Automatic annotation (TrEMBL):
The keyword Membrane applies. The chain crosses the membrane at residues 9-26. Pfam families: DUF7164 (PF23741). Residues 67-89 have a biased composition (Low complexity). Residues 100-483 form the DUF7164 domain. Residues 65-98 are annotated as: Disordered. This is DUF7164 domain-containing protein. The keyword Membrane applies. Keywords: Membrane, Transmembrane, Transmembrane helix.
Length: 486
C-alpha cells in the first residue's frame, strides 16, 4: 500500500509543476549566438536533458563583471571525511592509453523516456541517422554501438534493428542495443516489491509476442548486484528526485554499468544531438574523461558548491563549467554517475528549500542558484571530488563536445574537432522546435545537399531521418557498419 510521508506528498505536488531547465552551453565561436532573443520555449514539462540556451542570460553574463568567474579564487580543500584521517591521496591510476590501431569499442548512450515518445522519438531518429553517418568515417576495426535505456522494447526500436543483448565480442558489427530500465518515477511500491518481481511483466509478455527468449532479456536494475544497485538509494531517488526529469539519464549510467562495461569508451549524451563525422575517428587522449561545457558557474555558485563539498566530506579541486555530456572510459562514467547521484540527493535534501524544489521561484534565481540545473551542480561536486582524490582525469572539451547546430560558416567546421552538435533553444536553423513544428521540408533538404556547414549537417540529418522509414535507417546501419571479417 502506498505510504504518504510528508516528503512524498510534497514530491507529488511537485510532479504537477513545470520544471524549467536552463542549461546553456558555452559558445565562444559564433557572434550570432549572442543576439538577444527568445520567446519562452514551449517545450513540455519534461525530461529534456537539453540545453536551454537563454541568450539574454548569456549576454548578461558576458557584459557584467559581477558574474565573471576569475575575480575571486575559490578555496580548495582536501577531503575531510572521518575515514580519510590520513590525508594521503593515492596516486592516479596508471594510464594505459587505448591504441587507435586496435579494435576500439565504443557506445553512444542515451536514456529514452518511452512515455514521452511523441516528443522525443523525432530526436531519436535524427540521432540514429547521424550515428549511421558517423559510422562511414569509422576505421574498419572499430565498433560503435547505439545504446538505449528505456522501459519498453516497442515496435519502433525493433524496426530500427535494435537488439536486447549485450555485446559479446569485438567483431560483432556496430548495432543498436536497447536495455529495459525502470525509470525512477515508476518505482512505486507495487513495482519494487519482492525484488521488482512484477516490473517487467509487460516487457515479458511483449517478448512472447515477438517469440523472443524471456530468459535472456536484459533488464535493469540487477537487484542482486551490489556494484550497480543500492536498494536504499533507489528508494531515496524515488522519494526525493522522481520529479526531476534528468535523474534517469544519470542513474542508467550507474545501474546499467554491466551492460556497457565492455566498451573502451562511452559517450553519455542527451537525445537532442547529432553525432558529427569527426567522432568516427576520435577517442579521448591520456585516459581523460571529456565533458562538454556548462554555464552554471557563477562566482556565487562556485563558492557555495565549494562550501557544500566540505560539508559532504568531498574533495574540491577547483574545476568548474562542466556540461552534462561525457566521453570517456565506461568505468569513469560509472564513477561520475555514482557520485553525481549522491551529490544531487544531498543538494535536493539539504540545499534547496521546498518552494525552490517545487519550481515556485521559476527562474528567479538563475543563474545564481537554480533547482533546474541540479544535475550540473551534483556533477560539479562529483567531478571535483573524483579529480581531487585522483580517481579520474577530466578535461572540459569546449571545442569538442556539444557544438553548435546553428553555425553556418565553413570556418566553424574546418577548425577544431567537433564531435557532436547539440540543439539549443533557438529559432535559428537548425532549431528543434521549428523542425518539430514541421517548418522544414524537402525543399530545405535539397537546399543543404552540398553545404558542409554544421547547420547544414544538422538540417540534413534531421530531415533525412524524417523522410526515411525506420527500416531504411536500420538498413543504412547494417550495410555501413563493419561486419566481422575472416
Ligand atoms: C531568460 O532570462 C531572462 C532574464 O534573465 C528572462 O526574462 C527570460 O524569461 C528568460 N527566458 C527563458 C526562456 O527562460
Ligand atoms: C569589466 O572589467 C574590465 C577590466 O577589469 C573593464 O575593462 C570593463 O570595462 C568592465 N566591464 C564592465 C561592464 O564593467
Ligand atoms: C598505426 O597504424 C599506422 C598505419 O598502419 C602506423 O603508421 C602507426 O605507427 C600505427 N600506430 C601505432 C601506435 O601502432
Ligand atoms: C510497448 O510497446 C508495444 C509494442 O510497440 C506497444 O504496443 C505498447 O503500447 C507499448 N507500451 C507502452 C506502455 O508504451
Ligand atoms: C502501481 O501503483 C500505482 C499507484 O500507486 C499505479 O498507478 C500503477 O498502475 C500500479 N502498477 C501496477 C503494475 O500495478
Ligand atoms: C511467433 O511464432 C508464431 C508461431 O510460430 C508465429 O505464428 C508468429 O508469426 C511469430 N511472431 C513473430 C512476431 O515473429
Ligand atoms: C544474480 O542472480 C542471478 C540469477 O538469480 C545470477 O545468475 C547472477 O550471477 C547473480 N549476480 C550476482 C552479481 O550475484
Ligand atoms: C597527452 O599527454 C602528453 C604527455 O603528457 C602530452 O604531450 C599531450 O599533449 C597530451 N594530449 C592531450 C590531448 O592532452
Ligand atoms: C558511490 O558513491 C558513494 C557515496 O559517495 C561512495 O560511498 C561509494 O564508495 C561510491 N561507489 C563507488 C564504486 O565508487
Ligand atoms: C516547403 O516549405 C516552404 C516554406 O516553408 C514552402 O514554400 C514550400 O512549398 C514547401 N515545399 C514542399 C515541397 O512542401
Ligand atoms: C549539388 O551538387 C551536385 C553535383 O555537383 C549538383 O548537380 C547539384 O545541382 C548541387 N545542388 C545544389 C542545391 O547546389
Ligand atoms: C551505406 O548504406 C547505403 C544504403 O544501404 C549504401 O547505398 C552505401 O553504399 C553504403 N555505404 C558504404 C560506404 O558502405
Amino acid at each position: 500500500m502506498r505510504r504518504f510521508s510528508p516528503r512524498s506528498l510534497l514530491s507529488a505536488i511537485a510532479l504537477s509543476l513545470v520544471i524549467f531547465i536552463i542549461i546553456f552551453i558555452f559558445n565562444h565561436q559564433s557572434p550570432n549566438e549572442v543576439e538577444p532573443v527568445q520567446e519562452k520555449c514551449n517545450c513540455p514539462p519534461v525530461v529534456e536533458t537539453a540545453s536551454v540556451i537563454n541568450k539574454s542570460t548569456i549576454v548578461k553574463q558576458e557584459v557584467s563583471n559581477i558574474t565573471k568567474p576569475e575575480t575571486t579564487p575559490v578555496p580548495t580543500t582536501k577531503p575531510t571525511t572521518s575515514s580519510s584521517s590520513s590525508s594521503t591521496i593515492p596516486p592516479l591510476p596508471p594510464c594505459q592509453p587505448v591504441d587507435k590501431n586496435s579494435s576500439v569499442q565504443r557506445a553512444i548512450i542515451i536514456y529514452y523516456p518511452h512515455h514521452q515518445g511523441e516528443y522525443f522519438f523525432p530526436e531519436v531518429r535524427w540521432l540514429y541517422r547521424s550515428w549511421a553517418e558517423m559510422l562511414l568515417s569509422q576505421p574498419s576495426t572499430w565498433r560503435t554501438d547505439f545504446v538505449i535505456f528505456t522501459y519498453n522494447f516497442s515496435a519502433e526500436f525493433r524496426s530500427l534493428g535494435c537488439v536486447n543483448r549485450v555485446r559479446q565480442n569485438k567483431q560483432e558489427p556496430s548495432v543498436c542495443r536497447l536495455f529495459l530500465y525502470i525509470p525512477i518515477q515508476f518505482r512505486t511500491p507495487n513495482l519494487t516489491s519482492n525484488n521488482f518481481e512484477h516490473a517487467f511483466t509487460a516487457a515479458k509478455n511483449l517478448a512472447k509476442v515477438y517469440n523472443e527468449s524471456v530468459e535472456q532479456m536484459v533488464t535493469i536494475p540487477v537487484v542482486n548486484d551490489s556494484k550497480t544497485f543500492d536498494v536504499k538509494r533507489s528508494q531515496l531517488l524515488y522519494n526525493v528526485l522522481r520529479t526531476y526529469g534528468y535523474i534517469d539519464s544519470i542513474n542508467t549510467i550507474y545501474e546499467g554499468y554491466h551492460t556497457f562495461s565492455m566498451y573502451d569508451f562511452v559517450l553519455r549524451t542527451d537525445i537532442d544531438v547529432f553525432i558529427y563525422r569527426h567522432f568516427g575517428k576520435y577517442i579521448p587522449q591520456n585516459c581523460t574523461l571529456l565533458t562538454g561545457g556548462g554555464g552554471y558557474g557563477t562566482d556565487f555558485n562556485r563558492r557555495k558548491l565549494a562550501r557544500i563539498s566540505r560539508d559532504m566530506g568531498f574533495a574540491f579541486s577547483g574545476m568548474s563549467g562542466m556540461g552534462s555530456t561525457w566521453y570517456g572510459s565506461a568505468h569513469d562514467g560509472y564513477l561520475v554517475a555514482n557520485q553525481t547521484l549522491y551529490g544531487m540527493l544531498w543538494l535536493a535534501q539539504y540545499e534547496f528549500a521546498t518552494p525552490e524544489r517545487e519550481s515556485k521561484l521559476g527562474t528567479l534565481m538563475w543563474p545564481e542558484w537554480h533547482y533546474g540545473v541540479l544535475l550540473l551542480y551534483g556533477q560539479h561536486l562529483a567531478i571535483n571530488h573524483l579529480v581531487g582524490t585522483n580517481q579520474i582525469r577530466v578535461v572540459i572539451g569546449h571545442n569538442l563536445l556539444d557544438q553548435s547546430s546553428t553555425d553556418a560558416s565553413q570556418a566553424y567546421v574546418q577548425n577544431g574537432i567537433r564531435l557532436n552538435l547539440h540543439c539549443w533553444h533557438t529559432n535559428d536553423r537548425f532549431s528543434k522546435f521549428a523542425f518539430k513544428l514541421g517548418h522544414y521540408n524537402q525543399t530545405d533538404l535539397e537546399k543543404y545537399r552540398n553545404d558542409t556547414t554544421a547547420q547544414a549537417y544538422a538540417m540534413r540529418m534531421a530531415l533525412e531521418s524524417k523522410y526515411m522509414t525506420l527500416e531504411q535507417m536500420a538498413n543504412l546501419v547494417r550495410t555501413n557498419s563493419s561486419t566481422a571479417s575472416s
